[in-house]
Amino acid sequence: MKISTYQPDQSGLAYSVGTTLDRFIKSKQSDFPFASGELSQLLRDIALASKIVNRETNRAGLSNIGGAFGQTNIQGEEQQKLDIIANIRFIRALSKGGEVCAIVSEEEDAVIDLQNKSGKYVVAIDPLDGSSNIDVNISIGTIFSIYRRKTQVGSPIQKEDIMQPGTEQVASGYVLYGSSTMLVYTTGFGVNGFTYEQSLGEFFLSHPCIKSPEDGQIYSINEGTQDEWELGIKDYIDTCKSRKYSARYIGSLVADFHRNLLKGGIYLYPATQKNPNGKLRLLYEANAMAFIAEQAGAVATDGNRRILEIKPESLHQRTPLFIGSKKMVEEAMTLASVSIKSQ
What we know:
carbohydrate metabolism, cytoplasm, 8 helices, 2 domains, fructose 1,6-bisphosphate 1-phosphatase activity, globular, disordered C terminus, metal-binding, Fructose-1,6-Bisphosphatase, Chain A, domain 1, alpha+beta, 17 strands, magnesium, D-Maltodextrin-Binding Protein, domain 2, single chain, 30% helix, five-stranded mixed beta sheet
């Protein structure tokens, strides 16, 4: 009997498809000795739900699931049909997985207690960010944060399990549904991105160890609200224009953040007269993105405080957000601070 030693293919005829998300997650389980595999399974549950939402998004124009649902959520925003579908898909996946005891969703008024006595984790999620862009075929996304519950496993859910600052996240991430579908996440050991290969039904590692450029030349802000900005923000945007920076604003937080994370840039959603507390939600939008940003070497602030250190006081609490390349955010905050002092 002949026995030969395996040698990697050198012919170039069969290219490597890379590392799957599942295999990558398994290889990182030792980073969390407290988790006993539950966190890994939870990330797989999120990945599974995102595959289903990706399918629904891709066929939205053919299956009459685009457009408005005819109701508003707790934020007073009109719900789209895919908002409802995505919310159902993620809640269903997380409830069946068994690792989660409670869910905070943008689409739900209250905390969802899954009555899962063995669940160690709380998930805060925006099931479909930027859903108003669905009907015009613009990139949308999912944003999620994962926390360990504070109270004893098996006991009723308490406020302290839910109202945790971003520093307590054990993982966060987003899924971008665009020209390709990507899942980007961190567990506090760097940021990695995975691209979905539809024919194989798998996410493959495509962007290992993502590092955001320290500086950039892209700014993302809704300039339609400029009359409501404080003077420092106006000064910063004028500075960006004088330097011939590129204005890029899609209106989907996931899409704008993802571009700036990779290419270098800043995303600004300041307080305005209409929204004096900002518009983005702290628990399931700002915290998740801030954790990813900091792990990639970027910065996230509300204009005065580090986003991750803000103690939430309400379920759907809003916050201003300035996030992106370190030098750009620091300069924007310097100008904003000067403006406040001069008033």
